[in-house]
Amino acid sequence: MLYSKIEGSGQPLLILHGFLGMSDNWKTLGTQFAADFQVHILDLRNHGRSLHSEEFSYEVMVQDVFEYCEANNLENINVIGHSMGGKVAMLLATTHPELVDKLIVADIGPKFYPQHHQDILVGLNAVDFSLKPSRNEVEEIMASYVPDFGTRQFLMKNLFWQEPGQLAFRFNLEVFNRKMDEIGIPLPEGFIFEKPTLFIRGGNSNYILDSDFENIKQHFPDSSIETIPNVGHWLHAENPTEFYQKVTSFLK
C-alpha cells in the first residue's frame, strides 16, 4: 500500500508528485485544497515512504494508485499530477475513466521526453553515505553537479536519518539508475480520456510547447491549457497562489 497523507472531507482529490519528489512537497497546497476536498497526497512507488521495488513503470504506478483507491473505497476522484505524477495521472484516467471525475496535469504532456536528469543522477550517486556525511557535506557534493539552489533544496528534502549518525535518501536511487528510460515514455496511442481535463504549464518551462496542443487534444478532447507566467517546471512551488486559483476554479 502506498504511503499517503489524508486531510479534509468531501470528494476525493489525489495529488501525485513528480520524479524524485514526495508527498511533503505538496503539504501546504494540500492543506488549502482540504478546505473543499478530502485530499490524499501520495508517495509513489520507490519515492518517499512508499515501497521500494525492482518494478518501476507507469503501468505499475497506476496499478498502485488504483489499488489504493479500492482499499480506501474512493470513487469519483479528482486527480492532480505534476511531471512524472502527471504521466501517472494521465494513464490512470485513460485506463480507469470510471474512477476519475476531473484531471489536472501540471507541466507535462502525453508525448515522449528524452532523458534530461543525467546531471542530477550523477550528483546523487556522488554521495557516499558509507562515509557518514553531514547534511552540509551532502549539499556541498551535490552543488558541483546541481548548481541551481532551488533544485538542490528540492532534492535535499529526500534526506533522512536512517539511524543516528547515518543519512540516506528516501527514494530508490539504485532502481532509478537502471530504469531512467521509463520516465520519458509517452502515453500510448489511442488512450483517450473524454472528461474535463486541465493542463497547467509554466511560462518559463519547455515541457509543454504550443506545438504539443494538438497531441494533447487527441488524448484529452475536453481539455483546456493554461499558463502561469514567470515560473518554470516547479510551477506549483514558484507560484502556489495562482496554481491554487486555477485548480479550484476548474474543479468548481
TrEMBL record:
Gene3D superfamilies listed in its UniProt record: alpha/beta hydrolase
Hydrolase as UniProt keyword: yes
Ranges of residues in domain AB hydrolase-1: 12-108
InterPro entries: AB_hydrolase_1, AB_hydrolase_fold
Coiled-coil blocks: none
UniProt keyword annotations, A-Z: Hydrolase
Presence of keyword Hydrolase: yes
Protein name as it appears in the record: Alpha/beta fold hydrolase
Organism for this UniProt entry: Flavobacterium ranwuense
